[in-house]
């Protein structure tokens, strides 16, 4: 049987753009983008003698950026470029490089802001298609646009933590651990979405086999944000996986202090106490979960399983008692029966809450067999045969 462990899911936030831009106009159906593309490429082609003059003009590259952006917007022109938004961004960056006197700064900025909207939208589309590697690139491009001086000068201190998180999440999901670490670290430094950011950053370090830094990430974050319960849960999970049960109990108790009415926390604490062979505290923790939520299935299930374990211990003791010591044998058997009776109550409640829970029915079948309750045994057996 799979034992209970506290692995509570942290919420991963996939945000929308934090900066609002004007929408790019719908593509002009009268435009011949193929012809425009050939002309603009000729004007920047180093092998074209006439391009010597046009290729050094910022406006030429601005036009190239606008054309590639238009290609992206026009579904009938998709075959003209494999990655039109990337080409558009390259073009605007080249225009910035050539615009040494800032005469075209305003037009470049407008083009970039319009481009940014579709770069971000493309990132979302890649994410939804689960093409996370390309999604990361698009989010990075969006960040790059915002960081270009021509765009950022109006708000130089702005840090786009939401987009960094999305870039990190795409990097994480595509297995690019270095990029994930880069962006999650930056977000954590700015206190963005601390719980999930720290947890994912920890995981990225674990993927790189760096357990020392992984733990340090959580400990440092917890030291800075001790009231963040997601961090407390992350530390608890870390210590559970590391089989450091005493440390897991320590942090789980802190989590309970923050959320005393969370039944899953008390249920998890019961499981940890089981591992520490602290019987009374384990049972009390499971019972607390039930007291909080009378319909909390897991508490009944795991307490019922624990009762079976306790009963089995007495059964094992009984097997090792010499045959002549009938009194001692019966004493242990009676103790086993007491625990099995309690387990029946828990498992029947599980069946009431989740009638299709075959695990509970299987346990009940075995319990009724041990308790010599033939009718109930046959009833459970038939349920499992359906």
pLDDT averaged over residues: 92
Largest sheet: none
The shape is elongated
Order of helices and strands: HHHHHHHHHHHHHHHHHHH
Oligomeric state as shown: single chain
| Structure annotation, total helices | 19
Proportion in helices = over 70%
Q: Give the terminus-to-terminus CA distance.
A: 22 Å
Number of individual domains: 4
Structural class per helix/strand content?
Answer: mainly alpha
Low-confidence residue ranges: 1-25
Number of strands: 0
Q: Percent of residues in beta strands? A: under 5%
User: What radius of gyration results from the CA coordinates?
Assistant: 32 Å
What is the secondary structure topology, with strand pairs?
Blueprint: H1 33-43, H2 51-54, H3 58-73, H4 84-98, H5 105-128, H6 132-147, H7 149-152, H8 161-173, H9 177-189, H10 194-207, H11 211-224, H12 229-241, H13 245-258, H14 263-275, H15 279-292, H16 297-319, H17 326-353, H18 358-370, H19 374-385
Helix pairs in contact: 1-3, 3-4, 3-5, 4-5, 5-6, 6-8, 8-9, 9-10, 10-11, 10-12, 11-12, 12-13, 13-14, 14-15, 14-16, 15-16, 16-17, 17-18, 18-19
């Amino acid at each position: 049987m799979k034992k209970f462990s506290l692995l509570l899911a942290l919420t991963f936030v996939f945000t929308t753009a934090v900066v609002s831009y004007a929408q790019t106009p719908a593509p002009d159906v009268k435009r011949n983008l193929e012809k425009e593309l050939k002309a603009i490429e000729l004007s920047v082609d180093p092998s074209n003698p006439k391009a010597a003059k046009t290729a050094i003009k910022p406006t030429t590259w601005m036009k190239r950026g606008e054309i590639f952006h238009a290609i992206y917007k026009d579904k009938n022109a998709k075959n003209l470029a494999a990655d039109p938004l990337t080409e558009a961004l390259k073009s605007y960056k080249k225009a910035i490089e050539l615009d040494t006197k800032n005469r075209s700064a305003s037009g470049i900025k407008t083009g970039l802001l319009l481009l940014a909207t579709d770069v971000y939208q493309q990132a979302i589309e890649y994410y939804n298609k689960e093409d996370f590697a390309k999604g990361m690139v698009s989010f990075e491009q969006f960040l790059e646009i915002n960081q270009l001086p021509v765009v950022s000068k109006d708000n130089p201190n702005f840090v786009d933590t939401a987009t960094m998180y999305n870039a990190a999440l795409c990097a994480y999901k595509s297995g690019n651990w270095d990029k994930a670490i880069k962006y999650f670290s930056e977000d954590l430094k700015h206190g963005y979405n601390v719980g999930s950011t720290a947890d994912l950053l920890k995981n990225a370090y674990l993927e790189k086999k760096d357990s020392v830094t992984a733990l340090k990430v959580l400990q440092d974050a917890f030291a800075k944000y001790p009231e963040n319960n997601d961090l407390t849960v992350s530390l608890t999970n870390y210590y559970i996986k590391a089989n450091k049960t005493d440390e897991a109990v320590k942090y789980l108790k802190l989590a309970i202090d923050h959320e005393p009415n969370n039944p899953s926390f008390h249920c998890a604490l019961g499981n940890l106490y089981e591992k520490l062979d602290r019987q009374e505290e384990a049972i009390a923790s499971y019972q607390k979960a039930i007291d909080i939520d009378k319909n909390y299935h897991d508490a009944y299930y795991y307490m019922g399983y624990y009762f079976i374990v306790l009963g089995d211990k007495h059964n094992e003791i009984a097997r090792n008692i010499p045959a002549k010591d009938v009194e001692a044998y019966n004493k242990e058997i009676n103790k086993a029966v007491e625990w099995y009776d309690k387990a029946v109550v828990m498992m029947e409640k599980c069946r009431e809450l989740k009638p299709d829970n075959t695990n509970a029915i299987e346990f009940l079948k075995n319990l009724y067999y041990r308790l010599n309750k033939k009718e109930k045994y046959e009833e459970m057996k038939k349920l499992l045969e359906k």
